[in-house]
Amino acid sequence: MATMLKLFAVFGSILCVVLTTGVVETPHPRFEYKYSFKGPYLAQKDGTVPFWEYEGSAIASEEMVRITPSLRSKKGSIWTKDKTNFEWWEIEMIFRVNGRGRVGADGLALWYTDKREKEGPVFGSTDKWVGLGIFFDSFDNDGRGNNPYIMAMTNDGTKVYDHQSDGINQQLAGCLRDFRNKPFAVRTKIQYYRNILTVLFHNGNTNNDNDYEMCLRAENVFLPQYGYYGISAATGGLADDHDVLKFMTYSLHPPGTEPTPSGIADAEKEKFSKEYEQYKEKLDKQKEEFRKQHPDEAKKKQMEFDPEQEYESHQQRELRQIFQGQSQMFEMMKGVHRKLDEVIGREERVLSMLSAVQVGGAAGGGGGQGLPQGGVVGRHEVEAMLNNQREMVQASRDMKAYVVDIHQRTGNIIAAQKTGGGQVFEGHTVLNELKDGLNIVKRDLASVNAKTQANPCPPVQAVNCLTPVYFFIFMGVQLAVMIGYIMYKSNKEAQAKKFY
Questions:
Q1: What pTM, to 2 d.p., does this model score?
Q2: Which CATH code for domain 28-253?
């Protein structure tokens, strides 16, 4: 019995030790924006990245930072401006390494060092650094076929990176993972907490954000308490595009030590409020001066901020339609006047021709006798008179159409004015003038029609022309004479040739 109790006691103590040592401590993360960047609008208008500095071949755009382009022998880097103020941290980096060839070079590195490094031989950064370097090595320098490779290496400022062996003997730990030319962006998470370094890797074959796998884990890693973050890359005889899309930094705090957000003091609030008011007054003055100096541009700017001013109101639209209708009526009346002038001119020409015909008939005498040879009206004159009459009829029809159209438009305008809420408009006088003008046109047409009926066209004598029979006889005689002449001429020429 005593032996059983001893066994239970030993088992209980072992279980307690396992449970106590197996408790996982979950730190509290806090996002640090001064040590992070991501798209969109990653770069400012001047090309800079807030809180970061880049050099070499690095180029920042709205969506990413290209550390090096796919050109040979290029180096670039980007570093934080300020040192960290927290001891433990976690980094999430999303990047792409793309190239044309099956093999790329040289690689990309993530740094945590005690100072900002310059351009150098270790993946675009200096050697003998103090801190941590996470290397994504693309090129196989030692010829072992173990690249692309991910490794972690610490340095106290005395070690020189061994390029010939790809630093395989200097690493803390590493993993063989391919990160080139993936369908999706490659991801990595680096956590440094309680002197334990953990690197997780997402190979970019899927679009699942949580598809991470363990790459390495190293304990008893001692790094500078505060430092700078950096990313560098380099190309050699082969070249890849090294693009970083997102770099997110989180400070890690043990449970119970979460930082409390610090508020702004009242004195600072009052100071900021005064500065804001001063800036606002200065801005208003500058706006007023700009309006006085550039009224047209100020109006355009005001239209941009208040687009409703560009659209007319209902009353303005109604007045504009009335004015347009009146201008169209005026143009139509001008056309009617031109047509009337043409008709009157043609009528005067017709009357003069008829009077000339009548005078010629009276001078020939003989009462009912026909007109003399000199006063006979020709066919072309009769056709001209008929054409003039046709044109008069057509002009009358056009005038009638114009009158009908004007009448319809006038009725529409009157109806629109009646439905316009009783607004008084000066168009009534214009409409009355139009009606008077139309009445005058009708009276002129009636008088022209009466004159035409009172003075009909004189009868036209039939002109005797050459009949077809005489024409063909004349042509036959002419043809016989020509044939006879040709035969006579050919006979003479034949007789003349006999003497030669």
A1: 0.51
A2: 2.60.120.200
